Amino acid sequence: MSTFRFAVSVMPREGILDPQGRAVETSLPHLDVTNVHGVRVGRRVELSVDAPDAAAARVVVERLAGELFANPLLEDWSIEALGVTQGSAASAEGAAGSAGSAAPSDSAVPSGTVGA
Amino acid sequence: MRTAVVVFPGSNCDRDALHAATLAGTDAIPVWHESTDLAGADLVILPGGFAYGDYLRAGVLARFSPVMGAIRDHAVRGGLVLGICNGFQVLAEAGLVPGALTRNTSLRFEHRWVTLSVERTDTPFTRAIPAGRTLRMPIAHGEGSYVLPDADLDALEARGGVLFRYAGPEGNPNGSARDIAGVLDTGGRVCGLMPHPERAAEAILGSDDGMLLFRSLIESGARSMAAA
């Protein structure tokens, strides 16, 4: 048994209005950026699967992507294999590397624009 | 007639739905989402709120709660199911009604009164509503924009699956395709709508138009009980 790490990217389907992407795009002039367009906002899900081989692991991820992570009426998805930890079901973290320990602070982003 | 109101972690209109269903004259009881026993209910209501915090996508995690299997069986047997707001999102994610609900085009949480046209008055949900009568009800949602591919929308309209539309001077509050506010499943026994009839069930709330839905359902429940 090995541990397989995957990333599933979920994006709004072509033709489905993406109000988040549109909102991001309309804010760009405030950053003095005028040459960026086609912004779309989706979601990324990372997960580890314990399975005998990569194909078996992928079957599980395919199912979760279509039934849970994405709604096929609204979203498309793609699956990326991130790595594998051989023969150890316990240490899934090792396969994914250690990204994100130093989170960049981006103080240029205004907060509180949506006062819900 | 018995009404079961399903309570998910994060439901917040379950008490209102119980109150309105009781007021309408049904024996209304809450049913926890982990139960698979609907207590012999004739009508099941999936109430509004934020089941599972709306994490991942509104309604999708609730779709996998144990109670949903019982609701599916109930619907297959011809039982009545009403999904309100978040309940509509759960029904849509579960495939019990067609379509999907996504982010309002305004990107805002829209909470206001709307006017609905009633597209059919020959359904269990609308039979007590006089033809041509519009309904005033509040909406309160961030993800109520109804989405379905054009060809499927045509098919939905052709089979009379559109039950309510936003039709007032306030316009379409969320960008829903063809102003759709509520739909029926193919069997005509499962309905999902974004506006809140239970919040418009007494005059003191500003409108009692919502009670027309509950009265319709009681009439329908009484009929099916008489037929059984």
Question: How would you explain this protein's 3D organization?
Answer:
The complex is a heterodimer of chains A (116) and B (228). Chain A has helices at residues 19-27, 54-69, 93-96; strands at residues 2-12, 43-51, 75-85. Chain A is of the alpha+beta class. Chain A has a single domain, classed as 2-Layer Sandwich (Mth169, Chain: A), CATH 3.30.1280.10. In chain B, β10 and β11 form a beta hairpin. Classes of the chains: A alpha+beta (116), B alpha/beta (228).
Question: Short description, anyone?
Answer:
The complex is a heterodimer of chains A (116) and B (228). Helices cover 25% and strands 27% of the residues of chain A.
Helices and strands in order, then pairings?
The complex is a heterodimer of chains A (116) and B (228).
Chain A: E1 2-12, H1 19-27, E2 43-51, H2 54-69, E3 75-85, H3 93-96
Antiparallel strand pairs in A: 1-2, 1-3
Chain B: E1 2-7, H1 14-23, E2 27-32, E3 43-46, H2 67-76, E4 80-84, H3 86-93, E5 100-102, E6 110-118, E7 135-141, E8 145-147, H4 150-158, E9 162-166, E10 180-184, E11 190-193, H5 210-227
Parallel strand pairs in B: 1-2, 1-3, 3-4, 4-11
Antiparallel strand pairs in B: 5-8, 6-7, 6-9, 9-10, 10-11
